[in-house]
Structures are given as C-alpha cells and as structure tokens.
C-alpha cells in the first residue's frame, strides 16, 4: 500500500492521503509531498510518471531493479538509487535492500522494488529531524541518505569486530581450520558486497552537493556534507578491512604450508632412521656368505650397528630441529 505525507512550510500537515491527490496538492507552492511505493507494478509507476512528468528512462530504471548506486539528472527531476544493508553476525553474510528515489522541486517518490527496505526507519529519522522540514525536498532526501549511510557504517563496524575475532583464531591451535576458512571467505564476500554499494555513494552524495542541484540549499549543505564525510569513512574502512581479510587468508595458507612442511620434515627424518635397521637386516639376510655368518658376534654387530647409526641420525635430526 502506498504511503504519503504532506508538509506545509516545514510542518507535517497530513499523511496517508490517497496518492491520486498528489498532483492537486502540488498546485500549492507551500506544500512538499512524499509518496512511497512498496514493490510497485509497471502500471503504478506509469500513473505516477504521468502525474509528475517523470522521464521514461528514470521510470525504466525504477521498474528494472538491481541498479548500481547513482544519480541521474533530467530537466524537471532527478532519480537516484541507493542500498541499505543488514549484516547477520552469525553467518557473516550481508543482505542489501534497494531504494529508488524520484526527486522533483516539491515532491519525493520512493520506490522499494523488493519491499525489503525499512522505510519506517526513514520516517522515524524524518520525525527526529523535524526542525529541518522547512527545507522541503532537501530535508526528505537527506533523511533517506542519512539512514542508508548509517546502515553502511553500522555494517562496517560489525565487520570490523568480526575480523578482529577472526584474527584471534589464526594462531589458535584449538581453532577449527575449516570454520576459520569458512568465516574468512564469508567475511570477504560480505566486504565485496558492501564495497559495491558504498563506493558509488561518494559520487552520489558529491553530485547532490553541487550547486546545480536545486533541492540542496545553503541550509542543507552542511548536513549533506556530514553524510558525505560518513560515506568517505565507510568506504575507506571497507577497503582496509577487505585488505586485512585478504592478509588473514594469506596468513592462514602460510601457516598451513609451514605446518605441512614441518610434518613432512618429521616424517622424512623418521623414515631415514627406520631405513637403517631395514638396510642392516636386509644385508644380513643375504643368501651368500658374509662376516659373522652363523656366529653370535655377527648378531651383536648388526644389532649394535642399528642402535648406533639410528641413534646418531636421531641426534643429528633433533639438533637440526627436524624432529
């Protein structure tokens, strides 16, 4: 069901009125209108496009979801796409929710293709910043972007904690290698997903800060600048965590390689020691005459040779840390 709000001179005047009344309300220059469409059909978007004079390419982007975060500028309006994110701390997996926004001089239309985007959280953000409502659509767009970027920041903070926990398990002898690898790969996947939605936001917010965007006036510029600062911090943090997870993964592989080399070194040392009695007993087992044949001293010589040579090899390998 469509949700609506109407502000008059910075004061919330009405909400949840019929969407068909939007064009009538926009005749009043003192009004700013918001319309939200959750999982709309093509017919719904066509109706809104006719009411507000939206460009067909912008409507096409709203119909076909999974757009990259961006801002498209048209003669009478702008269309932007952004993604909020939610991190599952147990599985380390990140889920995204797409939001499309049509912005005209006095109207904002939000489109949620899958319906996953938490628009209620945005409404609460608008209510908390009600003193900025007098700035019209700039206030509404700021609340949307502020919420989106806050989800990015919260996700990257949680990922930072998870990466620190992963670091602690790298040198833990009791940690499961399979579980450590699974979590490191899940974290890397989440960071790649987060990077795809965070990095383009720098261009989105920077574009909105330019003077030619009419809805970002002088009063709202510091607030958009604050959002831009959070975007930069989140993107830089994401990049550093992505590099750190890669380093942790490489360290895990190096540790596994070193452990394998150590095991192979020990196995080779013991094989060399075991080869001594095998060689000596094989020599005395020849079916030809040899010194000490059928003599007691021959048995003792072979036994002593096994003990002395085997003991000498063990001492040498132990000294060289091969065992």
UniProtKB/TrEMBL annotation:
The keyword tRNA processing does not apply. Coiled coil: none annotated. Keywords: Cell membrane, Membrane, Transmembrane, Transmembrane helix, Transport. It comes from the Bacteria. The chain crosses the membrane at residues 267-285, 297-317. It is a multi-pass membrane protein. PANTHER family: CORA FAMILY METAL ION TRANSPORTER (EUROFUNG). Belongs to the CorA metal ion transporter (MIT) (TC 1.A.35) family. This is Magnesium transporter CorA family protein.
């Amino acid at each position: 069901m469509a949700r609506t709000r109407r502000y008059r001179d910075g004061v919330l005047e009405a909400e949840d009125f019929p969407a068909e009344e939007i064009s009538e309300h926009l005749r009043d220059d003192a009004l700013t209108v918001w319309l939200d469409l959750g999982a709309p059909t093509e017919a719904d978007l066509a109706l809104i496009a006719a009411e507000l004079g939206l460009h067909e390419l912008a409507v096409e982007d709203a119909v076909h979801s999974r757009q990259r975060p961006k801002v498209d500028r048209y003669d009478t309006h702008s269309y932007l796409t952004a993604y909020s994110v939610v991190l599952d701390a147990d599985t380390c997996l990140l889920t995204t929710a797409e939001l499309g926004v049509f912005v005209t001089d006095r109207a904002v239309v939000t489109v949620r293709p899958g319906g996953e985007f938490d628009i209620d959280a945005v409404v609460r953000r608008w209510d908390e910043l009600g003193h900025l409502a007098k700035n019209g659509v700039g206030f509404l767009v700021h609340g949307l972007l502020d919420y989106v970027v806050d989800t990015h920041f919260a996700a990257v903070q949680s990922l930072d904690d998870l990466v620190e926990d992963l670091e602690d398990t790298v040198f833990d002898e009791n940690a499961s290698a399979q579980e450590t690898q699974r979590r490191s790969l899940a974290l890397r996947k989440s960071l790649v997903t987060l990077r795809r939605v965070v990095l383009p936001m720098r261009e989105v917010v920077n574009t909105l800060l330019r003077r030619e965007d009419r809805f970002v006036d002088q009063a709202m510029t510091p607030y958009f600048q604050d959002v831009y600062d959070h975007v930069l911090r989140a993107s830089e943090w994401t990049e550093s965590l992505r590099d750190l997870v890669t380093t942790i993964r490489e360290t895990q592989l190096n540790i596994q390689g070193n452990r394998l080399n150590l095991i192979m070194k020990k196995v080779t040392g013991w094989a060399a020691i075991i080869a001594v009695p095998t060689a000596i007993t094989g020599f005395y087992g020849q079916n030809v005459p040899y010194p000490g044949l059928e003599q007691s001293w021959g048995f003792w010589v072979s036994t002593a040779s096994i003990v002395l040579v085997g003991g000498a090899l063990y001492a040498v390998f132990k000294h060289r840390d091969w065992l």
